[in-house]
Amino acid sequence: MLFFVELVEESGQEAIMYPTEIMEFTIVGIVIAVILMISFFFRKKMRKVGWASACVIFLAYSLFFIARPYWIDSQIKIKVELLEPYLEQNYPNEKWTIKTSAHREDGHRSSNPYYIGVIFENEQDVTYDYWVEKDEIYQISYVTNKELDDLKHRESE
Length: 157
Hints:
Elements: E1 5-8, E2 14-17, H1 19-39, H2 44-90, E3 96-99, E4 116-120, E5 123-132, E6 137-143
Antiparallel strand pairs: 1-2, 3-4, 4-5, 5-6
């Protein structure tokens, strides 16, 4: 089960924070607070080192939090480029549509932005999710209302 924390912004739109983001904010906040509290017990020179350390940690995490969506986008693009030849090899003469997660859009709810959905033209009511690694490609799930026997592109586990 996936849990979300929904925050209502002044504009009326919901901002969603995933549990991992909440844990990251909490851990970074606690580390910075501990460094700042400990630095109060030091003399002037060491106190400045503590404040500088807390500032560096805050800036590094801020940079990480800002850059992460762009990093995820680049990784998804690489994974799609690896998936296309796999589909061409395993399903020749077929057409498909590749769906990726809109993880940067407000209100998006997905368990993992790295799942790549494939919808085959001759099986429009089934979405097959693939997990792509450098050396391996797995069909990890599918979503449909059809019976299991009717699935044309289901790969055995």
